[in-house]
Amino acid sequence: MTSREIIDQLQQTTCWKEGTIKSLMNRLMQKKLIDSIDKTRPYQYITTIDQKKASLDQINGFIDRICKRQVGTYLNELIETSALSQDDCTLLIQTLEQKRALAPTEIPCNCPIGECHCTHTNIHT
């Protein structure tokens, strides 16, 4: 995609100004998440990371910021509120059964001491 195509598409779905989008594109290039194919105008841009990896990075980043004792609660909420096929459910059940065989009885709280909001302050790492 050219920078113009990216700008036009984002302006249709957001209220961002052109300068904001250009700044975002520059930051994404600095982080090596996108790259330009051509070094002459019009610049053609490609992603350097696939969507699955980007999505997993986002999910793992979220999980890293919550208490480890609450991960199961959040995963359960996601499952309850997500549209899942029967095959998805079967895969989840199989994965959970395998995970359960090796799972500890309790997960230690990883909240900073004195800042625990998970109501499980009795077990810390």
UniProtKB/TrEMBL annotation:
Pfam families in the cross-refs: Penicillinase_R
Chain coiled-coil ranges: none
Annotated keywords: DNA-binding, Transcription, Transcription regulation
Keyword Transcription regulation: yes
GO molecular function terms noted in the UniProt entry: DNA binding
Gene Ontology terms describing biological process: negative regulation of DNA-templated transcription
UniProt keyword DNA-binding present: yes
Family in the record: Belongs to the BlaI transcriptional regulatory family.
This protein's name: CopY/TcrY family copper transport repressor
Lineage of the species this protein comes from: Bacteria, Bacillati, Bacillota, Bacilli, Lactobacillales
